[in-house]
Every structure is written in structure tokens, then in C-alpha cells.
Amino acid sequence: MINFEKLIVYQEAIKLALDIYKLTKNFPKDETFGLISQLRRATVSISLNIAEGSSRSKKEFAHYLDMARGSTYELIPLLKISSELGFIGTKEYMRFYQRVDNLARSLNALKKSVNREQ
What pLDDT, in 10s, does the model give residues 33-63? Predict the structure, then answer.
């Protein structure tokens, strides 16, 4: 197992991506290149940035963690729009919102830790 795979934040990002894929399976087919694509790309981007950044310098890793956090924030309006259009229920929206918020906080904490090591 490579170091980034041991990070809880990475593991949570993978779980979130899998759950977003499951969630969007029930979206209307005409959203394939709209919300479905945007949600999936944003959520996959989180774990990709963690993985790629871990192979770089500490300074670059911190930058990649910022990009991963940015992708988590992209999910918020995408989920809200999905909720407003009736593709997901309010409870499901809130559940995902909490997960995204927790993941963003974890990424921020990891970035602070990486910055202290520089």
C-alpha cells in the first residue's frame, strides 16, 4: 500500500466517490452529460489530487490538497441543484452535505499538518 492509501481522508474520498456514482445511477438519463458528469468528475478529482499531490514536495502536496478541497466545495452546489430538481431528497442531500463538509475539514487539517512539516 502506497502512503496516500493509508490516509483516512483518501479512503473517505474513495467512499464518497463510490456513493456519488451509486446516487447518480438514479438520475434522469438526459443528465448524463450534465449533473451526473459534473458530480462524478468533482468527486473523483478529490482522491486523484490527494494521490498525485502525495508524490510531490510538501509545498506542492499542500497545493494539491487545496485543489482537492475545491472539488469538495464544487459538490455542494451540484448536490443542491440535484435536490432542487427533485433528483435527490432533502435527507439524502443533507447526508451528503455533511460528508462533503467533513471531508473538506479533514483536507484542511491535513494541509495544516503538511505545512507544519515544511
Answer: 999 999 999 999 999 999 999 999 999 999 9
The pTM of this model reads 0.94
Low-confidence ranges of the chain (pLDDT < 50): 1
The number of beta carbons lying within 10 Å of the beta carbon of residue 60 is 14
Domain ranges of the chain: 3-117
Least Cα distance to 107 among 57, 45, 20, 56 occurs for: 45
pLDDT of residue 117: 80
Q: What is the CATH number of domain 3-117?
A: 1.20.1440.60
Give long-range contacts, CB 8 A cutoff, 24+ apart: 53-61: 54/2, 54/3, 54/4, 54/7, 58/114, 58/115, 58/117, 58/118, 59/118, 61/114
